[in-house]
Amino acid sequence: MALDHPGTLSGSLVTLDPLSLDHLEGLAAASSDGELWKLWYTTIPAPDEMETEIRRRLRLQDAGSMLPFTARRTDTGAIIGMTTFMNIDALTPRVEIGSTWNAASAQGTGTNPESKLLMLQHAFEVWGCSAVEFRTDHNNHQSRAAIARLGAKQDGILRAHLRPAAGYQRDTVVFSITEPEWAGVRLGLEHRLAKRLAA
């Protein structure tokens, strides 16, 4: 089964569009919001590196290993970040949701959990995935907490897994949601978003 790009995924708070070079200016502005590229425990492109990053993700899409999105607010259309399906295993099938970042002003607004709901729904209900994986740096406590709040369970830690910077070996924390867990995870995410929309 081929896991093709699903196209645009739309929610009440966030819309995920297929990544395009047309998004360059908006993504550079989103990266500037909070100077996210200065965070040492994650890899977020600086504004002047954004075109290179977009082209990298599009090359990986052409190679069949990544399906990238640009995230924007549904109400204003403002671009707020990026996310992807990656490490695509079409045989199992199984995917990772990762390479995600959001502008500082978008954090805590509900756009991230809704983007995960949209992507998880597609992975489990359209592609029939057996599991969806999430990975993050052991030192990225904000990301680890956010993944756990989705309902994902920690599978383990890959020690000395990557070298993202000179002299630094990253321990990668691996989480996943399996197909039997999806119904409960979906209910939890829908409840979180309904409370936010009602506020």
UniProtKB/TrEMBL annotation:
Pfam families: Acetyltransf_3
Coiled coil: none
Domain N-acetyltransferase: start-end pairs: 14-153
Gene3D superfamilies reported for this sequence: 3.40.630.30
Source organism, top-level taxon: Bacteria
Name this protein carries in UniProt: GNAT family protein
Originating organism: Leucobacter alluvii
High-level lineage: Bacteria, Bacillati, Actinomycetota, Actinomycetes, Micrococcales
